[in-house]
């Protein structure tokens, strides 16, 4: 690959400044309504997306796999961005609309309090407020940001989706130009869909943080769970590899390797322990069940995360047998002996887990760089990997950022019946 492919956030902002990016106000942290991790991710991602869209003079943003809708809403509230959230799940779309209203009400109350504090007169040091400030009731009709800027649509996106048409339906009075597509932790193959859509359409810029590498469908290794839908997957394109450089070599990883790529060395080091006990429990459970019953390997047995809910292995086996609805009488003493006799294997498992975790950054780098290489192969030289998150807080910390050359004219033709300009 020619030229730099991995840059820091500061280097990205410098490049954006060179494209005459306006001053980007640091995003406020909204700790209510969302977890501490999600709040941090939304704060950082919204600032990066705002900077990118400012540099490209983007009129609108598409949030692919919008999920809960927090990122779209913050971009609308704090940065004035018109954002369309696309999610194939109707429940997610409805939930995002509800959360967007709650977040705007919270935002308005915060702004009102700040205005109130700024205008309050000074009192002596012994003065005490006799009553609390009244909680202002905000009606849905007052939520102009949710109504005009931040919208949600249920839609299954493919590389051939007509983004211009979808946006025009959501914003019928707007002039659309230099549209940005973003995704915060787009799951599995959705990352590949976003990149293909970006290269095939008139979208101007892309900011995407992927996740769930274990759910990627690979082109050169078959998954036993996808036999019946293999043809439909091929029609929309596989999630890995994307670049011709790896495709020409028929490169593949396999699910176990991709699972390793989701590990977080930073968290293991910080916690000073491995999360191997659930793995050990599941392995011993399988050994125990195979000694008692016939297991059909074509029908995977799923017990979920029982280990964290159990005080010991005996309890784990009992709960697993109940969950799997097996007609099996569990001998507690036999189960205890099985557990005690495999303590050396547990030590080996911990060592193996450490080795897998140490390789995780290499595997993740391969997947993410494949995406950047794919974009550069399509002629988009300003495509980069940018670490935007602290990996201790958000392990999937790498964003793929791509900027197409600035077009000489709007990417989409303005509507004749509207003189409205998007700022």
UniProtKB/TrEMBL annotation:
Superkingdom of the organism of origin: Eukaryota
Residue stretches making up the Methyltransferase domain: 37-218
Stored Pfam families: Methyltransf_32
The protein's name: Methyltransferase-like protein 25 isoform X3
